[in-house]
Amino acid sequence: MVIEGLYYTEEHEWAKIEGDVATIGITDHAQELLGEITFVELPMVNKEVVQKGELGVVESSKAASDVYSPVAGKITKVNSELESAPEKINEDCYNAGWICTIKITDKSTIDNLMSSKQYEAYLKSM
Amino acid sequence: MIENGVSGRFVFKESTKTPSGTVLFEQHLMRIEKSRMADFAGYLMPLWFSSISVEHKAVRESAGLFDCTHMGVLEFDGEHAPDFLDAITTNNIKTLKIGFAKYSYILDAAGYVLDDIIIYRRKENNFMVVVNAANKTKIQAWLKALQKDEAIIDTEKPARKLQDKPVIRDLLTDCGQDCRVDIALQGPASKELLFSMIEAQEDKQQFQDMKSFSLIETGLDGINCIIVQTGYTGSKTGYELFVHPSKAAELWALLLEKGKSLNIIPCGLGARDSLRIEAGLPLYGHELDGEFNINPFEAGYGWAVKLEKDFFIGQAVMQKKSQNYNMQVARIEFPGQAGIRPVRQHDGILDKNGICIGWVLSCAKVDEKQIALVYISKNIAEENRQIGLYYTARSKMQVEKGKKSKVEKNQELETDISGTIITRFEKF
What we know:
Strand content of chain A: 25-35%
Low-confidence stretches of chain A: none
Helix content of chain A: 10-25%
Helix content of chain B: 10-25%
Mean pLDDT of chain B: 95
CATH topology of the domain at 16-71 and 177-276 in chain B: Gyrase A, domain 2
Distance between the termini of chain B: 42 Å
Radius of gyration of chain A: 13 Å
Strand order of the largest sheet of chain B: 13-14-15-12-6-16
Shape of chain B: globular
CATH class of the domain at 16-71 and 177-276 in chain B: Alpha Beta
Strand content of chain B: 25-35%
Number of strands of chain A: 9
Structural class of chain A: alpha+beta
Number of domains of chain A: 1
Order of helices and strands of chain A: EEEHEEEEEHHEH
Number of helices of chain B: 11
Shape of chain A: globular
Largest sheet of chain B: 6 strands, mixed
Strand order of the largest sheet of chain A: 1-2-3-9-8-5
CATH class of chain A: Mainly Beta
Radius of gyration of chain B: 22 Å
Oligomer: heterodimer
CATH superfamily of chain A: RNA polymerase II/Efflux pump adaptor protein, barrel-sandwich hybrid domain
CATH architecture of the domain at 16-71 and 177-276 in chain B: 2-Layer Sandwich
């Protein structure tokens, strides 16, 4: 499942851009590949990240996957509910399973992301 | 490529091939997307159908059906078959009764484990041998070398050769009507389902009386089958069904349809792994051989190595190793509720002073706990002992925070979580 209006990365993160704030999560394809997610390591609030910089780690019993930042900016909020209920990413990766919000410092980094149509085509090409 | 120099070590490098589907591939595509399958030993195998935990639970409470048609199935036939198998594997095959099976090891002359196998005696001089899918081509190369007297079988007597050889056939292919592939039905409800599908009255009785590691040949709704009471899940009630590959899909669909009312579901590689870990069963490459060259004694299977036999390949080395080993495989229970970081292969196992005494080999989440198979100092591997664990780094970010990506024995480390050593094996 790919949601229209979001931006996507080749590493299967999504970003919802509202003004200069981006909400970040991992895509349906990513959660499907990982299987039952049992642990999420969240970034620190106020941490500055570059585009493709590390945000955290999502782990299932089978695999550990790094989460990279789709944009450059500063972490403003993290979804601490995931610490006790990491399965929210499996259940609802585009809403309740969000990982963090980032105040974008360099809006040009958005240009490097894929649209929903481009991401769909990217998934098919894999 | 084969090397078997004076050391007696047999090294085989397999060429990589593009994965292909098993004979049940079309069946799987009816239930899951292709993206849910992964390459395992050259076959595209389902990872899970519903979820690993649902499938794990089904095997413990009702039953689960596993595609094992990738497993290697070999036939050893002829009057020399019993002596040959007795010489090339560690267990006593001469005393194996017709209609029964034994777990055994194929070693090279240097004592390295080439595979762990199950040998089924169908007739006086006819055996079916199931080998790991990942080791099949290596074992075939080894057997070919043995048949041609090209391999060293005794490092103390390098000129030693095996006397007479049986006819060895690959039952997955090229055997016409004799071909066999493996489908496993594991869990308490499996007996009721199979019983209902056996047509002949006398076969029903025979099936009813089956014991662990025994086999019968019968029809399941008219499909000819070798039913054996073996498995890889730790279930006391569990069977493997050896069927002709052309009938495998029909049998698979039939078992799922008829098993529906008994809550029998298809299971993938994920549950196969978590079930065998929970039961304490070794996986070749992890708890056997692998990076630590774990031998059968360390793995907890010394009973399958009959040192007192006249001869078997690797015997001299096994005699030494049986007397002298300091590490062993143990089973440890860790907490595993949501929010606990999963334990993984290569994480460090620590004693109460935080000293690294070994490593995690495999781990699985089972309900609210994690069960790990570990390789640790033998003198510490005592049941009920508290043990610590050090999570190795999972990402660059953790390395930057100071987490080590690799830990060494005797290193002093911080304990991240604690666990308890439990019995080496568990039956369900």
